[in-house]
Amino acid sequence: MESNRIQTAFGALKLNDVLLDVLHKEGYLTPTPIQKRLIPVLLGGHSATVSAQTGSGKTLAYLLPTLQQMNPHATPVTHHYPKLFILSPTKELAQQIYEVSKPFASALGFRVVLLQGGGKRTDEVKRLERGVDIIVATPQRALEHVEARRIDIKAIKHLVVDEADMMFDMGFVPYVEKLFAAMTERSQKVIVSATITPRVVKLAKAYIKSLRRVELDPPGKIADTITQYLYPVVRSKKEALLSWLISSDDLKRVLVFVRKKELADGVAESLRSWGYKVGILHGEKMHQERKKSLLAFREGRYQILVATDIAARGLDIANLDVVINYDIPHVKHDFIHRVGRTGRAGKAGMAMTLVSPDEIEQLKDLQKVLGSKIKEVILPDFAPKEIKARRYLLQPSPRKRKTPSAKAASTTGVSKKGKKRKTTKRDGWKLLDAAKEKKKRGRK
């Protein structure tokens, strides 16, 4: 019965029976809004830029129609050569895309290869030599293999650039542009991100002639399933507040984001001293270390994962209780991606943000991007004194009452309220004239 319902839900998008069967086995019940919008566009052979909330199902939205175009009738595949190229800015996201694609590719008879920094080139070369249909790669490693002529990029029919705005932030655009330039105009190109910035649009228009734009949510939109809280805190008490929040709410799986890798190490060490099992994920860690930390966190062996914004994009972690922003990120849109690690696929999620007084200006800029204010929670033991007095983080200080003007004061130097008025030069001349007059009367 349920299989028939799934067949009807995804079948309405004209996907073949093999893909529908895998969707059923993997537990995908109904297509998400972005999947309903994008799958027909890509099945029609169009190139597109895609913008939707993080956690909205964008990976399957581009993966399913490209796989179907590669093998529309699900017939056995005997000749393996690259047809689909998926680029990801981070190793973690590339690994996740690779894992998501494997059951669908296997069912259709396709071979998938993951190319990324940190992996052994010799192993990658052997896999490419055996034949490959789908490549998931980070940009720099992909270009290395292309320039070494291990991949004929002109034969590729579909190119996907995932998290395109992050490609700019990480300096990967030159690599992407070289790959775009090497491909034929007939190939289908898909540029995907939770936030499509003007730079991304400019890149797309430079290399894609016939372009469809699929935008489900405006920039700055956070899923309605996520409840947010803001905690004003003295900077020196941030670590103590972090530990208190985790213990008081009995949170089982917590993803903590920090700006800098040095801070990630310090926060993790502090949490460990309080008895928590903590993993660390940032760019200075070796790939295998990052992979082990992420796996241990997903499996529940770590209660807390402390990470930089390298983990903010694309990662799908099941049953994530809460995301805690230890600070506000340098790039405002990264806040949206951080928070989007929870409340995914329609599930409820929670995000907490710790803000010290020196971050108030950044908070104001962030709330302009979000278009709304985050609900504040004032905890007297942690909040700055001025915050406790005002009870609201962004409320301006009370204005001081103006003192009565000199015009309101009497000539005796006393105001109407009985307070002494400031003496002026004019008052001095009056006193001098009165003294002279008194002296004259004395002589008479």
Question: What can you tell me about this protein's structure?
Answer:
- The chain is α/β, with parallel strands linked by helices.
- The protein has 2 domains: 2-215, P-loop containing nucleotide triphosphate hydrolases (Rossmann fold); 226-390, Rossmann fold (3-Layer(aba) Sandwich).
- It has helices at residues 2-11, 17-25, 33-43, 58-70, 91-107, 121-130, 139-147, 164-169, 173-182, 198-207, 238-248, 261-273, 287-298, 332-339, 360-370, 385-390, 425-443, and strands at 47-51, 84-87, 112-115, 134-137, 158-161, 188-193, 211-215, 226-232, 254-257, 278-281, 304-307, 322-325, 349-355.
- The strands form 2 sheets. Strands 3-4-2-5-6-1-7 form a 7-stranded parallel β-sheet, sandwiched between helices. A 6-stranded parallel β-sheet has the order 8-13-12-9-11-10, with helices on both faces.
- Helix 6 (121-130) links the parallel strand 3 (112-115) and strand 4 (134-137).
- The longest helix has 19 residues, at 425-443.
